Structure formats: C-alpha cells, structure tokens
Amino acid sequence: MKKIWMILNLIFLSVLFSACTPDELIFSDQSIAISSMGTFISGTVSAPQSTWESTYQEIKDMYELYHKLTDNYGGHEGVKGIYYINELVKTTQADQTVEIEKALYDILKLSLELHVLTDGYFDISIGRIVDVWKELIDTYEFPGQEVPQELIEHAQSVVENIPVIEDAVTLSTESGKYYVTLKYGAKIDLGAIAKGYVTQLVADHLASKGFNTYLISGGGSSMLYGEGNPRTEDGSYRTGLINPQDVINNLDVLGYRPKNYGIYTSTNYNVTTSGSYNQFVVSDELMYYHIVSPKTKAPANYYLTVSVVGTDAGLNDALSTALFSMPPEVLNAFVELHNLEVYTYLFNNSFESYNQTSNFRAIS
Predict the structure, then answer these.
(1) Theoretical Cys-Cys bridge with 70: which of 112, 116, 138, 194, CB 3.0 to 4.6 Å?
(2) Which residues, listed in sequence order, are joined to residue 47 by a DSSP beta bridge?
(3) Residue 260, helix vs strand vs coil
(4) Sequence-separated (6 or more) residues with CB below 8 Å from residue 57
(5) SS3 353
(6) Contacts with 243 (C-beta within 8 Å, 6 or more apart), sequence order
(7) Which DSSP category does 23 fall into?
(8) Cα→Cα distances 152→160, 161, 248, 285, Å
(9) Is 335 helix (H, G, I), strand (E, B) or coil?
(10) 3 state SS of 98
(11) Verdict on whether the full-model pTM lies above 0.85
(12) Nearest CA to 291 among 122, 117, 70?
C-alpha cells in the first residue's frame, strides 16, 4: 500500500511541475510589424510570451527614437535632429553648431568614418544634391517611366551649382556634451545608413536578452538573421538575391514575384542591397534614381544592384550605397582590400561575385 502511495505522489508531483513550467522558459515565435523611418520593419523572434510585450515596446521605441533623430522631412517637438539642424543652417545662412543626443552623435561619427574609409563615396552632406534627383523621380508615379531629356539636363544644371563642401560636418564633445557643426551650403541626409544602423542595434538588443533566433527585414533591402532557425536542420536562414532585370521586365505585372539569381544560406549574418530598380526614371536609355555619386553629382549606371554580406547591418547599409557609385575597377580594389563579400548585378543580365563563399548558390 505504501509503495502505491509513493508512485501516486511521484505522478502527482511530475504533473504539478510540468504544469507550472515558468513562462520565461517557453520560447515561441513572436512577430515584428513596425511602420517607421519611412518603411515597414517586419520579422519574427523566438522569445517567451511573458517578456515579449516589454521587449517589443523597447524595439518600437528604438525605431521611433532614430526616426525622430534622422528624419530629413519634418521636425519633431523637442528633438534637435537632422531636420532641425538642416533648417537652422538654411534659415540663418551660416555655419551652425548644435548640441545633440549621444545617439545621433554616434551614427554621425560612424558616417564620417565611412566617408574616409570609402574615399568620399559615402557622403552624408550632399543632401541638397540628392534632393534634386529625388524631386525629379518623385514627379513620376510609376518606376521606369520615360523622361524628356530636357528635364535631365535641367537637373544636371541645378546640381552643377551646388558645391560638395569639404569637411561639411564635424563633431565635438565638451564636458560630457555632444555637438555637431554643419557648414552653410551642405545638408545632412542619413537615409543611406539609418535603417540598417538601428536594425543592427535592435538585433544586438535581442541578443543581449538571450533571444538569438530571429529574422528582421529592415524595409526589404536589409535582411538580418540570427541562429537556430527551427525550420531548417542546421538552424540556418536563407535569403534570396532578387534578379533586378526580372523586376524591370515585369513592372507592368501587378503582384509579380520576381525571380532570384542566387540564394545565400548561413547564420548570424546580414545581406544589404542597394539598387535602382524600384525607384527610377529613364532617359536616352540611361537610368536615373535616388542613389547619387558624390564624385559626379549624378546617379551612376554601373550596376542594377549591389549586395553586401556581413555581420553589421549599419555598416553594410552605408557600404552598399558607396559601392553602388564606384566604377568597377574602384569597387574591385576596395572589396579586395577590405575582404568584403559582394555581389553585383549588371546591365547585361549577369552577376559578378567578390570573395564568394560556399554559402552562396547561383540560380540559373
């Protein structure tokens, strides 16, 4: 009889403890869906339901903070961000020094370091020049529309009179405070780094909480992956490199899903792509789009897309933009010097790879 009671007690305790497993030990897929920074951030994270609500709010707060700090199109009450700085210099017609938050100081610091690293191909101070081409492109509702050559010539004449100012942005610190100085005639535009930068901060934040299984799409152009994907045997994640020519060939097909020219499979990595195929106009068989070379003050026509593979989404966001404006011989020397894994899609409907690894598989 005693033995029977012991067995029953063991069964009872086993059921009791299994029923009372702490929620923080049960991981499940949680969704990310955030409209911020002029795009849509989406993804999934493996995390406990009990703590996800607070973590998700922290993620949304991070995107909202950097949206306000880096927004180039409108001001935000009480925020001395990029819009505030640009407007202050424009209205006073003079150089201005502004005290800023450390968060903005840090992204500006990285941007200036990348300006030096890329020999000026990444330049956050040419916002006025970028605006001229954006205004032209945004005039047309659909991508790929034919533009009269006189409109291109007008844009070129306008940007010719806008100088690329040397050392347009400088940073300083004093007594624990952070400052930026912007020279008159320049305009800061962080659009080529901000989304990737904050998305990397989000991934680092998740990892600090022990949430290492995630997939984050920073607006589609930047994909960031963790590890332990439950849908694959080895825990890897796959991302497709879109064939931009296939997109262009089917612009008039509603809901068309473009083909990939390659698949990349790995863990703990980022793929960021800069491309011209989503927002562009055409004139005399040349494409004009929003990525502008600081060297020529105009869009280049070397590649349809440039994809950079690495572990830092902010760094790759800026590098893909810089590489997009580099002539092939300059790009080749740069990626070899810095050992970057890069894929460029060309106008002849083929791609070039640099420092290609076995993680990449071409699709014929």
Answers:
(1) 194
(2) 28
(3) strand
(4) none
(5) strand
(6) 258, 259, 260, 261, 345
(7) G
(8) 12, 15, 21, 12
(9) helix
(10) strand
(11) yes
(12) 122
Packing angle of the helix pair 49-70, 102-117 (nearest 10 deg): 70
What is the spatial distance between Cα 271 and Cα 307, in angstroms, rounded to a whole number?
A: 7
The gap between the terminal CA atoms of the chain, to the nearest Å, is: 73
- Could you list the beta-strand ranges (E) of 92-218: 96-100, 145-146, 169-174, 177-182, 214-218
Q: Is 275 helix (H, G, I), strand (E, B) or coil?
A: strand
Determine the 3-state secondary structure of 191 from DSSP: coil
Q: Report the distance separating Cα 87 and Cα 188, nearest Å.
A: 10
How does DSSP classify residue 164? -
Query: CA 163 → CA 110, 152, 159, 184, 189, distances in Å?
Result: 23, 19, 8, 11, 15
Nearest to 280 by CA among 272, 289, 271, 292: 289
- Sequence-distant (6+) residues with CB within 8 A of 42 are 31, 32, 33, 34, 216, 217
What whole-number distance in Å separates Cα of residue 354 and Cα of residue 332? 8
The tokens describing 356, both together, are 């290609």
Each residue's pLDDT tens digit, 76-111: 999 999 999 999 999 999 999 999 999 999 999 999
Yes or no: say if 276 and 291 are a contact pair by the CB < 8 Å rule: yes
Q: pLDDT tens-digit profile of 254-310?
A: 889 999 999 999 999 999 999 999 899 999 999 999 999 999 999 999 999 999 999
Question: What are the beta bridge partners of residue 100?
Answer: 178
Residue type, 116: V
46 φ/ψ angles, rounded to the nearest 5 degrees: -85, 110
**Residue entry with tokens 């938050």:** 101
* Helix count and strand count (H, E) for the chain: 10, 17
Q: Is 29 helix (H, G, I), strand (E, B) or coil?
A: strand
Rounded (5°) CA angle 358-359-364: 85
d(CA 137, CA 291): 11
